[in-house]
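Figure S4 source data
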Amino acid sequence: MNEPKNFCQYCGAPLSPGVHFCEACGQPVPGSSPAPSDETLISPAPLDYSRPSDVPAQLEPEQPPTVLHIPPVTPPAMGTPPPPKTPPYPPYTPPPSPSQPNSPKRPWWIFLIVGVVVVCCLCVAAAVAGYYFFSISSVQTIQDELPVEVPVLVETQAPVETVVVTVQIPVLEAGAGEPEQTEAPQANEEPTPSIEAPTISYEGVSFSFGPEIASAAEGQIIPAATGEDIPPWEITPGHTQFSFSDYILQNTFHNPQIIVYPVEEYAQLSEGVSTIVGDLRRLLAERSMTVPESGLPFLPTWNAAQMMQTQFTYLDFKNGSGIRYLTQYGQAAWPINNESMFYTFQGLTEDGLYYISAIFPVSNPVLPPADSVDLSDDFIDRFPEYVAETEALLDGEPAANFTPEITVLDNLLYSLEIHP
């Protein structure tokens, strides 16, 4: 039979049989020794009270022994579990974390200022976003109303190999007769060719011109611009380009130039170029005087729309043919003006291997300055009608009223010959 277990009355730990002190807390076990009396005399160990020879006789007398009064403790009955332990100390409360000090209360006006700044920033951002959206929407609307498709590519300027070619321009001697004045052809009427001896020849391309256009010309080999880091509208094959010095019109948006592209190489770089070359071949085969709804063919392609076509006709040069017209490009509704309008020739050689693009700025006194036109909502709303009226006005102007004269530019193209 199992004997009942005793528990320490101080800590509640179980007591082994026959022990006189608790093995957990060291307190005496009741009943293992005679119960202490009400007063227990605790006497110090015997001491040698003989006075050393080196201690003075004036020392204080010895203190009597201390009597400790220990109250009697009534042990619990055998087999009774000890009372629940009461923690001798209150529960531990951790001190406040030093990383979160009580910060002083901020003044209310700081929050007011921050709120006002945030609201102002949001208003500015909303205004900028609205203006950007309105601008994009306006440009898209104008481009949709224009009668042609907006090209994707832009004119590219790449590192060039420059060769300066001296142009021999005949000069009239003093007293010589003035050149005979000829009647200017009517609009859309093909003028009579007047071919002179070539005054410039470079890389198999030759043509002639006089001082009424420019004082000199310069041939350049433009290397190909290809690669993943080049935008698609800047990709072009290697080609030949001519620029003109002392052109008769200054401070124009476009520079006078003649460009000769290899058709096959250019078409391999862009599907849009293949479409433009195909449109030009179809026009030259049909010789129709009706301008297509998509506009007249033009290279190089730009990121703008062909806004108008006037003075449209066909021209044949020495070993090829093409079309000539006046036009202006833009990205939004803008007046037809003398700074942006230009003469262009777009042609192909007889063997179809080379595409010729000529660009020459022209002006006419019937066009008002661009800054004199009121760009109101009414102008934008009736922009297609404005373009049609301007085209009719310029179509009725004689070739001699343009600067340089359209016939002079036509004669330059008549003299063109390409045999690379």
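Figure S5 source data
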Amino acid sequence: MPLKKLLVILCMLVLCCNTTKAQISDGLYNCQYVLLHVWDDFVLVKGDTAYVQGLSEIKSQIAHGPYDTLIRQNDNKYIGAKYLLVKEEGITYLVHRKRKEKNNKYYRLNPPDEAIIQKWDRRHNMLAVNRLYNPYIERLRSYENEPQRHEKLIEAHQVLMRKVDTTQPAFNIELERFKKDYEIVQ
């Protein structure tokens, strides 16, 4: 009898160890692939939900990709409308879902690290600057007859562009300061 209990406990421990290794941990993952240019899919895993966002940088312009929200099905699988997030044999994959399952494309995700977070922050900061482009040009045109203000605005924009590599919260403070100082309305 005690041997059976010991065997049952041992089996339960083995099963628990296997399930904890298979879990997809929270964090920011990404994968790169090439279509017409280098494309990055970022996957943000938070608890029972994962978010997918495609972003690509082409000559300092950011291109949007598809968005999707994935819901956890079990410890190693999240399902959304366009994507699956699965963990098989210790490797996390982002799966682009197609009509036929055999046509699904598997992309290996890079585990969370500081370089991915920096790339994520840079791309989102560039998106904020791109949204500001037309109002910035309009303000620049309004200063054409005032050379000092014109030059000062150009210099301030260049300083702002050099700060794109900072974190998103720090950059948002600088962006708001720039918009306030030069009365740029989006």
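Residues 17-21 have pLDDT under 50 and may be disordered. The helical segments are 2-22, 114-131, 133-142, 147-162, 168-181.
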